[in-house]
Amino acid sequence: MTSVEGFSATLAIDIGSLCIKPPFPHRPRTAKCIAFSPLPAAQLRRLRFVDKSRSAIQMTTKSSNMPTPSLTIIVAASSARLGIGLKGNLPWRLKRELAYFKRATTFHPDNLTNVVIMGRKCWESIPPKFRPLPSRHNIVLSRKGEVDGITETSKEVEVATSLEAALARVKENGFGRVFVIGGGEVYREAMNMESCDRILFTEVKADVETDVDFPVDFREDQKWKRKSHETLEDFVGGDVLKGDIVEGDLSYEFQLWVKSSNVQ
Ligand SMILES: NC(=O)c1ccc[n+]([C@@H]2O[C@H](COP(=O)([O-])OP(=O)(O)OC[C@H]3O[C@@H](n4cnc5c(N)ncnc54)[C@H](OP(=O)(O)O)[C@@H]3O)[C@@H](O)[C@H]2O)c1
Prior knowledge:
Layout: H1 9-19, E1 31-32, H2 41-44, E2 47-50, E3 56-59, E4 71-78, E5 83-85, H3 95-106, E6 115-119, H4 120-124, E7 137-141, E8 157-160, H5 163-173, E9 178-180, H6 184-191, E10 196-204, E11 212-213, E12 224-226, H7 229-236, E13 245-247, E14 250-259
Parallel strand pairs: 4-9, 4-10, 6-7, 6-9, 7-8
Antiparallel strand pairs: 1-2, 2-3, 5-11, 10-14, 12-14, 13-14
The structure holds NADP nicotinamide-adenine-dinucleotide phosphate (NAP).
């Protein structure tokens, strides 16, 4: 993630427009159900058929009884030690990786607004003019309950004092996908949650200096399996560069890993 996401916004649009292609035939389709109903519009919007392959009809309404939303971690980390940060920032500057981050965290198959959850230090690493991250609902974790640059009147960003409190807000408001975007402390907590079942992992193939690492090596955990590139493209909604990508003197690769007990 992304001290310079705003900087790379133009690039992101360019890459997005070149790469996006129609939905894949094997992706579960959703169909909005339009009907006369006494339900308020906000709830009706969330009444929809999901995933025909499971023949399920899911009605999502504002309810604290809803299951905890599935969490997707998105992280760029070095091959050897899974290093992610240096002196409060990213250890590298990879424009195409930032463009991918923006696209992956913004895309939703039904155009819902996704949520990005981050730690206070991660928030502070984003230059003020580039935050909150646009077109996503930002939730910043801080045990103090207040964070520089976030006011009560902010619409696109809020502070939560725990990950559970953040997820409760997500459930109340019916957002789209939920991404945990770092840093190390928040990744650690997310990795301990049963509902954390996807990792969008950018493997940076170098042994660069870092002072914050991803907390666990999921690659050595039997529960986590790497999925195909097509499955990754399906999830992020379009073509993704395959294999090693070279930028400057670094190369990296986009990967999708899933926790096999949760996601097929
Ligand atoms: N490579 C990548 O993909 C990537 C992605 C993101 C960040 N990073 C890097 O990671 C580094 C920052 O990581 P970090 O581990 O030092 O910090 P962090 O996880 O970003 O933030 C830690 C802070 O978040 C708050 N926090 C964490 N867990 C919480 C919880 N459960 N409930 C409430 N508040 C909670 C606390 O804030 P308070 O002290 O205010 O209570 C804590 O001090 C930076 O170098 C950054 O650039 C890398």
